[in-house]
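Q: What would this chain look like folded?
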Amino acid sequence: MANVLVFAPHPDDDVIGCGGSIAKHIAKGNTVGVVYMTSGDIGSLAHLPDEIAAIREAEARQAAELLHISSVHFFKNLDGYLNCTWDNLVRITTLLREFRPDIIYIPHGDDKHRDHRQTYELVVEACSWAGSPRAPVCGQHLWRVGTILCYEVGTPVQDCSYIEDITAFIDVKLRALALHASQLHNLDYGEAVRSLNRFRGITTGGGTYCECFRVLKATDLLWSK
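A: My prediction, written as structure tokens:
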């Protein structure tokens, strides 16, 4: 059994980047939690920020229920202006020490979207904090994360170093993505995700549909075998 924690800059990034791996973890009996750094409050021309944030949080909860994710956390940073602040570092470090994840998923550090890069920087720094004897405000029980995998969303990973076969979970991944309906009106993310995961499967030989990751840290990748 493993505890898995996924950090997503916006609602839907988790499903796009590693939704198949999430479903696979849960099928194996692992516990999965998701942290949304923002609620995507500038993600619509049809709704005011507070309105679309509430809509996207509701969509994220529906997708989490479909995937049987155990917990969701909304940090409610301003969409488009995520920053490496003391408050964010304390919140993430506290959660790491409480949730004690064995495996973490984050966007890769070369993503073109600023919020994605900031999520990467924040979580990497917080992982360092969580395992070191400092920041007592974050809790007294230190925790060192064993494995950190970086997923791809809008910017493909250039140096893929780990491949996950999600063929058996592509359908539930796409059903979960479809629940993020507010984001699918103008852009067909479902077709993009299916195509990318199929492309990854063909070019890596890892399966019919695959998710690819950059390994930032790994003590043991045998949980998926």
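Helices lie at 13-27, 49-67, 86-99, 114-130, 170-178, 189-204.
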